[in-house]
Each structure stands twice: as structure tokens, then as C-alpha cells.
Amino acid sequence: MDFLTWGRNPWGQRILTHISWDLFWAALFAGVIFLVAHASYMILSSNRKRGKAETDALEAANKDLPEMITRHSFMARVFHWVMAFSMFALLLTAFLPIVGIRFAWVEWHWMAGLLLTASIIYHIIHATFFMDFWSIWIGPKDIPDFRAEMAAELAGSDDGPKTGKYPLGNRLYHLALVVVGLSVSISGMVMMSRVRQPIFERNPYILADTTWGFTYVLHGACGIALVGLVIAHVYFALRPEKFWITKAMVFGTITRRQYLEHHDPRRWNVKAGR
Amino acid sequence: MAVIRDMMPVFELFQPASLEDALALLDQHKSDVWVLGGGMDSFDWLKDRTKRVSTVVDLSQISDLRGIKEVNGGLEIGAMTTLTEIVNNPVVKAKFGILAEAAEMVASPQIRNQATLGGNVSQDTRCWYYRSGWSCYRAGGNICYADTPTAINREHAILQQDRCVAVSPSDTAPALIALDAEFVIKSAGGERVVKAEDYFLGPQIDIMHMTALQPGELLTAIRIPATMANASFYWEKVRDRNVWDFPLVNVAAAMKVSGNTISEARLAVGAVAARPLRLTAVEAAVAGKPRTEETASAAGELAIQGAVALRYNAYKIPLMRNLVKRAIRGNAQATT
Question: Quick check: pTM over 0.80?
């Protein structure tokens, strides 16, 4: 299996052109294997939420909480689904031609890319000024939690620490998406100078051949990574024990009981309003 | 012109005697196989070592791929039929003269004796950057060297430029589109038939291939229906040299004219885009109109809508306009 594709520039020098498309199949395979492995593991694993008695007690102590708690605001949901739509459009326009389904993909691809970039910019502003910015990032505080979670997992216990709004896995996934998403978006914007579009005059010579090669490799590698990341994300969204979170991304709310069962109210204080 | 090194690389040569054997070989070797027809395009690529394959399948021994036969008032032409055979065929000349005229304009007599109809329509583009082995989009790279502010692109596309601005160099392709031909494609898995205009692909669909042939497939025959038999034809090719030159622009028109009214028209232009373009908008605009200077002028203007010049090929825009105008108007010297 090749990783990279090389060509020759007009001076006969060997230059990178793009990643090898073998990697697409590798990413697809890896995503499916992860899916199968995790699904198999989950058959044996326990569902780590609070027990009924503990949750009943918490509910009784938090009767002032509303029946339905806002998990995602309307604009947060709009952003998520716009990003999801643009991501699917990008992946389909990128990889269907690779597997032999021929159609005029380039225009749709960069238009979806512009939509993704706009949604990313919106999200950065929205998350910075209107959401709890720090709730999504990982830090040193997560290490003891991670150890405790692993210990509970290995013991088959439900007694591990409950999370804030976003579990550690969630936040690690978001971090991966930040790196990959920003890289693919920025490299894509640079690559817009290669194609005919109505926004600005194209100039394929803004970078040297070698630099273009790296840009294409970065863009392709990020695209490949997104294949695996999207498979994982859709999988988790459809998992039965996570479906209440998925519904929250559509309707915006979770029940008070779900909040108390899965989260630590001290870490995600809904009374504080974010 | 590519640098000619004249050193044939090593490959395994198969010379099947039957179509079935040829298809089996193509199915076995899939994408690492070169199909050899007349060799007029192949030997350049192979000797220059710009393209390298491990296997070459020579179709010259397959008699089923040759010949011209009448079918239901139309014709079925084997893909390995030479251009000279087409030029000299009495039925082609009598009923589908535009094809004979187009075939006679290809290259030189010596080349036409060897070149095949299937090869002429399936040949690769002549863009010199691509032919020189540079890693452009068409070669699997990530740039078009011809589509830059400093490129030498005198013979490149003015329409449907989409990252690649190479043009289709075939002379017979526009004529076949004008005749509403169908291309018969066979593989080990079966047969499919595509309309002539659908056989050719633009870069927006597939930037690395000129035709709709998939790995393992072979163009076996071209069928020309009786629809446009004995219609009023117009064929013209503009080139730098009077012989042995690819088109700068060529035009093929087949029209049914009643009195002086155009009842039906089929029009195609070559060498202005990566595939020969059927001008459906022009066809619709002239249908039912008189065959006059006014109609022709309007058709010419309509044909070039959306044309964008590169650095050195702006001349192609008025050239294409004028050729379409002449095709609609008719010209005593150029019609058959």
C-alpha cells in the first residue's frame, strides 16, 4: 500500500502531488473495524449511569430543576447540522469520484468547503462569546478522572466519576476534529486559488510545486482522517445508550432525569445558564 | 512535440485472434494494459516512455473488429476499420459523406492507411505539457501547466475549462456526433451502447480520461443510424498546415432542410473543449428557421456564449463563431 503519490515538475525534480488513494480504503476499513470492535465490546460492557436509587434521591433533591433541560441552543444545533451537511457533501464529492462514480464534483466540493469554513468561523465566535468556552477542552484535571474511569471499567462497575456536560471521549473527539477540521479548511481555502471560481482571481503559482504538494497531502490526509472520524461519530450518535444525546442535538433538550443520571451537577451546573 | 526517445520499453505483448480473447485479456489485466489499434497514438506514448504499462493487447489480428456493413439503412463500422477504408467506402460517401470528409482530413494518407476509426475517436489529447510527461491533472498531478498566465496555450480550450484546458483532437468525433452515432462498448461482462456525445468526457467528470471506457472495456464498433442519411452536411477543419495537422477548430453539421427551412439540425464542434461539443442550444435555435445569413449569424453568436480565452487562444472564439455560421449558412465548397 502506498501512502503518497509523486510526480515530476518541469525541471525533472521529483515532487509530492497528493496522498495515495489506497489510504481512503484503509481509513474506511479502520472505521468499520472500530465500529465492529466497539459494538462487540459494548455487548459485554455496562452502561455507566447512576443507579435508580441514587438518581431518585438526586431528583428529589433537585426538584427546582426544570423537567426538560436545554442541552444545545437553537443556534448551536443549526451550526451542528450545517456543519454535518457540509461535511457529508465534502466527503461524498471528494471520494465518490475516487471509487469510480463520475460526476462534476469540483464546484460542489469547494462550495461545501466554503459552507464548512463559514460554519467553523461562526462556531468559534459563538463558542467563545456565547457558550461555556472551557467546557469542551481537555486538561490536567482529566487525568485522575481518566484513571478512575478506567479502574471502574475494568472492574465492571457503574461507580466511575460522572462527567460535566461533555465526557472525556467527547472532548478528545472534538480536539481531533479541531486539528483536522482547521487543517482541511485552511488548506482548502489555499487550494481555491487553483480553481476557477467567482470569488477571486485564480493564481496557481502562489506556492511552489513542492509547497503545493505538501498542501495537497495535508488536505488529502485530513480528508482521509475525517472518513474515520465521521464513521465513529455517526456510530456513537446511533448507539442506543447515546441516542438521548442525539435527540438533544435535534430537539435541544434532555430530561432532568437524564441530566442527573449521566452528569455531575457540580461540573455542569445547568442552573448557571450555559 | 514530445521528446522522442525511440526506445520501446519492455512489456508483454498479446495479439489475440478473437474478440473474446481480447476481452478476457483486458479483464485479467484491468488498468495496467494498453490497447493497440493502429498504433498512431500508442507508439508516441510508449517510445517516449511517458506512459508505461506491463501489457499491450494488439487488436490487429481480430477480423471481427474490421469492416463496414449496412444495417437497417445505417452503418455499423468496426472500430479497427482504417480511415482510408472509410474515406473510400461508397456507402459512406453516398449517404454519410460528412464522415468520409472528416476522415479524409485526418493527418496524412500514410497515417490514414494505418489509423483506425476507434483509435481516432479514442485518442488522447495533444496538450504538449501532458504529452511531455509533466505531472498535470490529467497525468494524476495537481496542476494544469497550460492554464496559467504564462503558459503557451494557443491550441487549448475556450469552453468548459475545468482545471484542465486540453482539447479533443479528433476529426471524426464531431462528424459522428452530427450523425447521431452510437458507440458499442464490450467487456467480459457484457455490452453497452452509448451515444456519441456521451462517449467523450470533460475534465469536470473525469480529468484523467478522455472517454467513458472503463478498465476492461473495448470500443468494438460504431453504429450510424439512418436518421441523418443523405442530410445536408457541412464539415470544415481549420488547421495551421494543409496536411498532417490537428484541428485548431473543426465543425460538423448535419441538417434536414425543407425548401430553405431547417427542420432538424445536429451540430458539433471539436478542439474547443476537452470533448467534442454538441451545440444543442444552437440546434434548438435554428430548428424551424430559414437557412439565411441572419439565422447563421445568430447561431454563431449563440455558439460562443460562455467562451473564455486563455492567453494565446482568443482567436478560437471568432473562429468558432464563423465556422458555426458557415455550417448553418452552408458553403458551396465545404458541403457534401
Answer: yes
